[in-house]
Amino acid sequence: MNEPNKPNQSNEETSQINEGSAAVTPTSGWKKLFAKKWVFPAAYMAVAAIILTLMWVYQDSANHTVSESELGLEVTGPVENDPSTAEGQQPDALAVNANAETMQWPVADRDAVDVIMHFFDSKASNEARQAAMVEYGDTFTPHMGIDLARQDGQTFDVTAALSGQVTRIENHPVVGYQLEITHPNGLITVYQSLSDVTVQQGAEVKKGDIIAKAGRNELEKDMGTHVHFEIRQQDGAALNPETFLMQGM
Description:
Blueprint: H1 6-23, H2 25-35, H3 39-63, H4 68-71, H5 91-99, E1 114-117, H6 126-131, E2 133-136, E3 139-142, E4 146-149, E5 157-159, E6 164-172, E7 176-182, E8 188-195, E9 204-205, E10 210-214, E11 227-232, E12 238-239, H7 241-247
Antiparallel strand pairs: 1-4, 2-3, 4-11, 5-10, 6-7, 6-9, 7-8, 8-10, 8-11, 11-12
């Protein structure tokens, strides 16, 4: 008696199966999509592109410099009493010129002394180079400074050619009392053949301060009482003192 109902039951079961299949269709679609090999690389590239774009935008905004005109600070005309507009010079250049100290002759009275021996210049004439050689024993050496002496052979005051710090004082058996001053511009002035040194090592001296008196030494004993003056760089290279001294005249 129940057999006639079987077709209806079969239809109901079929309907339920179809409904179940329809319910899982979206999930199955995503699974199929993610199962494809190209999905994950494509998604990764898209995320990376978004991150790079955000980074570029951030860097561009960070590097942007606000101009004076954007801030309302732009100067449209010359400023009165502004030293940077004087003769086209910049403030930094004026500051350097104002603070730069010119070198002076290392004696209290320039008119009272003469240059009795000049600096050895390799570009000078043969006669000038020979005259700037110092003979000591059987050896001739180039004269790396200038010698100053009075015509009457008397002693005289030796002064600092530039302001700086006394960095060396010693009594050398050949060049006599030697004193060195290191200057803010990196140069070192050397004074040899001294007597009666009046400053101490480590002392700060001003340009024109008396540091010693002219004396004698063994290397240039034929020169009598005099002062030997040199200008050297930090690496020890000797410079022609007269080049610097003439600039301060």
